[in-house]
Amino acid sequence: MNNQVCPLLKDPEHYTPDIQDLSINEAARNYWLPTLQQTVKKIVAKISKLIPDNPKAEEHARLCQEKFNDLVEELKLDPRILRPLSVRTLLEFHEENFRVHFKDAWQSQKETETKEALCNFADRINFIDSIEDFSDKWLQLIVGVLAGNFFDWGSSVVANMLEGSQGFGLTQAMNTIESRPWFIDDVDAWVNRLNTRIFKQAVIFVDNAGVDFILGILPFVREFLRMGTRVVLTANSYPSLNDVTYEELNLYCCKAAQQCHILKSAIANGQLVTVENGQKGPCLDLKNIPSELCDLMTESDLIVLEGMGRSVHTNLNTEFAVDSVKLAVLKNEWLAKSLGANQFSVIFKYEPTI
Fold first, then answer.
1. What region, left, alpha or beta, does residue 227 occupy, with left being phi > 0 and alpha being psi -120 to 50 degrees?
2. CATH topology of domain 18-99
3. Per DSSP, what are the bridge partners of residue 35?
4. What is the pLDDT of residues 28-75, one digit of tens each?
5. pLDDT at position 156, please?
6. Cβ-count burial of 264 within 10 angstroms (0-12 exposed, 13-18 middle, 19+ buried)?
7. Which residues of the chain have pLDDT under 50?
């Protein structure tokens, strides 16, 4: 894959994706190393349920856990072993290590959650269409994306909530995230921009399968399409937890399009385009983007980053040469407090070009 630097970066020469450098931030390093060890441990405990047909699944997962633990112990002695040392690179190490034994450990889980979400897709878009006020409609679309992004198996607190409740859905997630005004709340500025400008092309980096993509992102995308904006949806090239992969992206869009003539028409006429983003983990390094996506990006006047991995752990402070939106729910209490927020605080960061 011929990867390049994102052409939408305002200052590509000084771009650094990671919000924290764990090699020099001792407090962050002392938190994230054991925390990520526990995350990997929980995945190992869940692996037999994720892949019940593989009798060696748990054995292979434990080998992956041991390799990750070995790296962490070495990093405790010398943080310079992994450069750069960040949540992004640690998660990429884990995912690449995991893929040695498992093509996509979460595939069955993603299929189940997406199938269930598709059953509620028509009701969701019909509800959105019933909202006549422009501002109210966009607020509901944004809340839908944020609540959908709650469904992240990489967050231990969310994983515990999902496993402990059979009926936890989009409505319950909406009631869990903080009420407005949010920690970063640029919704009013965003709606004002939409009132005066129709974007030519938006490139959207998506996150999780299931409720997140089907009930959060797709209604959001659909509204752009209705307004005449071309949309480029981009997903990970490789499996990572319950994140949507590029292969799944195409499949999910086509399945949703069976219930929505707007999506169906946009796919057919090229107004909705899907492309891989070259990433191997849940974070986003915009210096490592496939050339095909870079070529599409040159026509974009809006970039949207969804989820903690892509818009908080990485790129929270990244400046772009075009309008940008970053959306996330802070599902990790330590990270939230390090930013001056609380667990389940909301980030909706809109930065217009002057």
1. alpha
2. AF1104-like (1.20.1700)
3. none
4. 999 999 999 999 999 888 998 899 999 999 999 999 999 999 999 999
5. 82
6. middle
7. none
Q: Which CATH number fits domain 107-351: 1.20.120.450, 1.10.287.110, 3.40.605.10, 3.40.50.10880?
A: 3.40.50.10880
Please report the pLDDT score of residue 1 as a whole number: 61
- What does the DSSP 8-state code read for residue 13? G
Predicted local confidence at residue 159, as pLDDT:
83
Q: Do domains 18-99 and 107-351 have the same CATH topology?
A: no
Q: Where are the alpha helices (DSSP H) in 100-228?
A: 107-118, 121-130, 134-148, 156-164, 170-176, 187-196, 211, 218-226
What residue type is assigned to position 6 of the chain?
C
CA distances from 158 to 33, 110, 154, 177, 215 (A): 20, 16, 8, 12, 18
The predicted model scores a pTM of 0.97
Domain boundaries, the chain: 18-99, 107-351
Query: 289 in helix, strand or coil?
Result: strand
Cα-to-chain-centroid distance, residue 180: 22
133 burial class (0-12, 13-18, 19+ CB within 10 angstroms)? exposed
Q: 345, 335, 354, 352: which is closest to 20 by C-alpha?
A: 335
258 is written with which tokens? Answer: 């069976």
Q: Nearest to residue 58, comparing CAs of 68, 44, 70?
A: 44
Residue 15, phi-psi category: left (phi > 0), alpha (psi -120 to 50), beta (remainder): beta
**Contact predicate 199/224, CB 8 Å:** yes
